[in-house]
Amino acid sequence: MLSRWIVAAAAVPAVIVGLHIGSPGLPFSTPAAPDREIVARGSLHTVSPMLDPRSGHAAVLLANGKVLIVGGMRRNQDFYRSAELYDPTTQRFSATGSLTIGRVGLAAVRLPSGKVLVTGGWTGHDTTDEAEVYDPATGIFADAGRMTTKRGRPETTLLPTGDVLITGGADHDSPGGIASAELYHPASGKFEPIAPMHAGRLSHTATLMPDGRVLITGGRGEKVNSSAEIYDPAGKTFTQTGDMITPRYKHAAGILPDGRVLVAGGSGPGDWHNQLASAEIYDLRTGKFTATAELTDVRFKLPDEAPSLADGSLLFAGGSRTLDVYDPATKKFLPVADRLPDARHFMTETKLADGAVLLTGGYAEDDRSTAAAYVYQQR
Question: Which one of 32, 67, 141, 268 counts the least CB within 10 Å of its CB?
Answer without folding.
Answer: 32
